[in-house]
Amino acid sequence: MLRTLLLLLCSPFLVASATPPKDPEPIAYVLTPEFGKDGLIALNVSVRFRVDASGSAMLGWRDSWGGERRLWQWSRDLRVEGATHEATGDGRWRIAAKPDSVVTARYRIISAHDDDPTVGVSEQPHPVIRPGWFYGIGYALFARPEGSEALPATFAWKGAPAGFAFASDLEHPGRPAGKATVADILESVSIGGHDLRLFPSSDDDGIRVATIGRFAFEPQALDKLARSIIGSQRDFWDADRGSPFLVTAIPLVSRPNQMSYGGTGLGDAFALWIDQGASLDRMRWLLAHEYLHGWIPGRLGKAAADRDEHAAQLWFSEGLTDYYARALLVRDGQIPPDEFVDQWNDVLRAYAMSPARNLSGDEAAGDFWTSPPAQQLAYQRGALLAARWHARLRDSSRGDAGLDDALHAQIADARVDARDPVTLLIASLRSRGVDITADLDRHIARGDTIRLAQNDFGHCAAVTTVKMPTFARGFDADRTAAADNRVIGVDPALPAYAAGLRDGMQILGLSEGETGNPLVHYALDIDDRGTKRTIRYLPQSSNRIDVQQLRLTRDDPDCARSLGGALTPAAGRSRS
Q1: 454 and 487 share one domain
Q2: Which of 260, 429, 228 is nearest to 329 (CA)?
Q3: N or C: which end of the chain has fewer CB within 10 A?
């Protein structure tokens, strides 16, 4: 057998006749707007691809994204040229064609909204198609032949009338034709409209900003802020300078007594949903957090594809991102030290008072998509542990290294190691003398409360413990909501009663207050037997609990960097 193998390997005939494998044919996507008499009514999508030698393929959507499990639900009127098709359920179609033939699937995408998206009732996976503009994430817009994510793909936007502009990370200037993959098509954002504002790349930074509609700030201000934060983070990671990146922003119609804004990272873009009443200062944090997702967790290891496994690692992907968003903002002077301390104190207070604080890891992951406290717990736990681990690395190295160094090294490790980011983080910290496995077991798996040490934020601040009242509305919120907001269960011992709230009053709205925050006044607009008035009080119970808080102890020029975890020049700071 060995002699036969050697002859085969050495045969010049076999070497000369070997046919190199053909490059796979790109899957071609085309997006086209569809207009009716009143404006835009749908988006038309065509997907052109070659079936294999079996003559069959499955066409469908990814199982879930952003908590949405039915990404196919806005597709209509599928037809396939050059093949037959039949639905198999859950937005999947079985395609049958001649072996090795090219087929084209066409379908329409309709809007998930009958009106403009509104604060409190909008979700980022849901496509928005309004008479004058549209927004869509690739996961909801584009079907794909199953198993094709790694194949090359092309994209084209066609058929728009004059004055109807378009922006997408699928059309990055300078990207070579055919260099995208189907995975890039899915992980994308596209917006377009008559009043789209597009700010092109400047100074070869690769950054573009595109906005639709009106906000409480000028689009130019958002463009300037985005470039500043993205440039700062690229300097921190020492990567991606000049790489193409798109920031999109669409408006949410404001609602009384509510504020909402959010974003999602998409590799080489992120999509922002912004309350039309939100100030630009609120965008600073959102931009910092979302852009960091370009590194955390994607470049720190192979992220879990399974939805449940992904949820179990959200303390890492969201919590470490939260930690570094604050840290880099204060280091670079984007926020002052007192604002950094205030932000951390909000986190520490919310964590101490969270009803989800001691959920096990399995419980927290299982409740992430349905419970706001469980969702916030992932951010809180990861940020607190990052602060602790940075301090331990700093102290064990006598100020020569910190979490920055461990993560920079982890990025290099992840290029050649296909393990998940949590496993690689454990290895990176262990190689620096810090074992975090006990922390993960106690605080992530079992849900024990995390406590910071006094000097975790360096020489300019101290972690202290204070007694603080817990949050209490002063009435039974669930029963009141079920009774169409007619007040039930007012507690005579609490401030709401002392301020005048009584059973039977009709709540018209909340004009002040933050759910879970006992330090901010509640202001309930009520109808008291025909008389409208406002009842204002602190939503506090008589219970007091221990809450950790951060307090500035010094104010010198290096404090901003120290608070953000940067090592002092004397300690051998290298990258930060």
Answers
A1: no
A2: 228
A3: N
Asked if 392 and 521 sit in the same domain, the reply is no
Task: For residues 525 and 562, state if they share a domain.
Answer: no
Contact 359, 374 (CB under 8 A): yes
Please say whether the beta carbons of 132 and 193 come within 8 A. yes
* Domains contained in the chain, number: 2
* Phi, psi of 84, rounded to the nearest 5 degrees: -105, 160
Q: Are strands 39-50 and 102-109 parallel, antiparallel or unpaired?
A: antiparallel
515 with 421, same domain: the answer is no
Range of the domain at 517: 473-538
The distance between the two most distant Cα atoms of the chain, rounded to a whole number of Å, is 100
Residue 458 is encoded by which pair of tokens?
A: 């360096």
Q: What is the DSSP string of 313-382?
A: THHHHTHHHHHHHHHHHHHTTSS-HHHHHHHHHHHHHHHHH-TTTT--HHHHHHHTTT-HHHHHHHHHHH
Question: Would you give the DSSP letter of residue 298?
Answer: G
Residue 97 lies in a domain: no
CATH number, domain of 558, equals 1.10.390
In a domain, 308, yes or no: yes
DSSP codes, 396-415:
HTTTS--HHHHHHHHHHHHT
456 and 485 share one domain: no
In a domain, 62, yes or no: no
With a CB cutoff of 8 Å and minimum separation 6, the contacts of 374 are: 356, 359, 363, 364, 367, 368
The per-residue pLDDT string of the chain (576 residues; one tens digit each, 9 = 90 and over) reads 333 332 223 333 333 334 444 678 899 999 999 999 999 999 999 999 999 999 999 999 998 888 788 999 999 999 999 999 999 988 899 999 999 999 999 999 999 999 998 887 778 899 999 999 999 999 999 999 999 999 999 999 999 999 999 999 998 765 655 578 999 999 999 999 999 999 999 888 999 999 999 999 999 999 999 999 999 999 999 999 999 999 999 999 987 767 778 888 888 898 999 999 899 988 898 899 989 988 998 899 987 766 677 788 999 999 999 999 999 999 999 999 999 999 999 999 999 999 999 999 999 999 988 898 999 999 999 999 999 999 999 999 988 999 999 999 999 999 999 999 999 999 999 999 999 999 999 999 999 999 999 999 999 999 999 999 999 999 999 999 999 999 999 999 999 999 999 999 999 988 888 888 999 999 999 999 999 999 999 999 999 999 999 999 998 888 999 999 998 643 333 333
Same domain, yes or no, for 435 and 534? no
pTM for the whole thing?
0.81
Give the C-alpha separation, 112 to 134, whole Å.
11
| 433 domain residue, yes or no | yes
